[in-house]
Design goal:
The protein is an alpha+beta fold and 299 residues long. It folds into 2 domains: 62 residues; 207 residues, Gcn5-related N-acetyltransferase (GNAT) (Aminopeptidase), CATH 3.40.630.30. Helix content is 34%, strand content 20%. The chain has 11 helices and 11 strands. It has a 7-stranded mixed β-sheet, with helices on both faces. It has a two-stranded antiparallel ribbon with strand order 1-2. It has a two-stranded parallel sheet with strand order 3-8. Helix 2 crosses helix 3. The chain is globular, with a radius of gyration of 22 Å. The protein starts with 8 loop residues before the first strand and ends in a 6-residue tail after the last helix.
């Protein structure tokens, strides 16, 4: 028989107590015929564990249950089938050779009108992924969780891609810059957006285009996020590899450098650097961003 756990630990921003583990065991006992996937949905319903848009956080719950199962604290039913890794399953194929592009080299004023399309949950989302996978030095896989995607057109053809997703849960320089408490951060972290990819396509040589696009996206991203996920955005952030880039376009778009990361990943347990240091940059969206982010509870 599994013992009651007295030590509280954290998983994805939630405190998990011994009583919580007992409640998970009870959910499993009450539904012996359900799969792991359906049990995670039952747990979300029991805990009212939902996203800001009302959807169940079943992927997060499934990860928690799997971790507890591996630690011997609960017993999950046997896997009924192996589901492919979400990131691997959505890896974008190479850019199809049929896409016709024309090299562009001109001043920004000469480029003409630009169209910035939010392509998340649209037919153009596949093209967005292929462009990043083919031309960005880090490649691209569709993220899990909230995210938006911008495909920029100029002179009738794609010229840039910007990908945004949910922000990391804890970043010391950012958290000190905002000035929020740990409970405030846990409650309001969904009101930040993280620029995961920014690509000017290699056949496009237009001075000041990058900072111009950052400025235009900053003026609309909160409304777009509101439309997709029913909540606004008050702060943007990104990482820059100083060995590769100087952050010139972010500085020109009025972003602020906050210093270097610690070099530890989000799941680090050793408290030792295990990856390259990066510069953290942010851009507040509105003068009252601190007041909004330091409120208690959800918006």
């Amino acid at each position: 028989m599994l013992a009651v756990v007295q030590t509280e630990f954290r998983y994805r921003g939630r405190n998990i107590s011994g009583a919580d583990i007992e409640s998970i065991r009870q959910v499993i006992a009450d539904h012996p015929g359900l799969s792991r996937r359906r049990l995670s949905a039952k747990l979300c319903q029991a805990w009212n564990w939902v996203q800001a848009n009302g959807q169940l956080r079943d992927m997060v719950a499934r990860g928690l249950m799997l971790q507890l199962h591996r630690a011997g604290l609960i017993v999950l039913p046997a896997k009924r089938k192996s589901v492919p890794n979400n990131a691997a399953r959505h890896r974008a194929p190479l850019l199809e050779p049929s896409l016709e592009v024309t090299p562009l080299e001109c001043d920004l004023a000469e480029l003409g009108p630009l169209e910035i399309r939010q392509v998340r949950r649209t037919p153009e989302e596949a093209l967005f992924g292929r462009l990043l996978q083919t031309h960005h030095y880090l490649g691209y896989r569709r993220p899990v969780g909230e995210h938006v995607k911008y495909l920029v057109y100029g002179r009738g053809q794609p010229i840039a891609c910007l990908a945004w997703s949910s922000s990391p849960r804890h970043l010391g320089p950012r958290d000190r810059f905002i000035g929020w408490s740990a409970p405030q951060r846990r409650a309001q972290i969904h009101l930040l957006a993280y620029n995961t990819r920014f690509l000017i396509l290699p056949w496009v040589k237009v001075r000041h285009l990058a900072s111009h696009l950052l400025g235009r996206v900053a003026r609309r991203i909160s409304d777009d996020w509101q439309q997709l996920y029913q909540h606004p955005i008050y702060l943007l952030e990104t990482f820059i590899e100083p060995a590769r880039f100087r952050g010139t376009c972010y500085r020109a778009a009025n972003w602020l450098p906050l210093g270097l990361t610690t070099g530890r990943g989000k799941d680090d347990l050793t408290h030792q650097p295990n990856r390259s240091l990066k510069e953290l940059w942010v851009q507040p969206l509105g003068r009252d961003f601190r007041q909004r982010l330091c409120r208690e509870g959800h918006e």
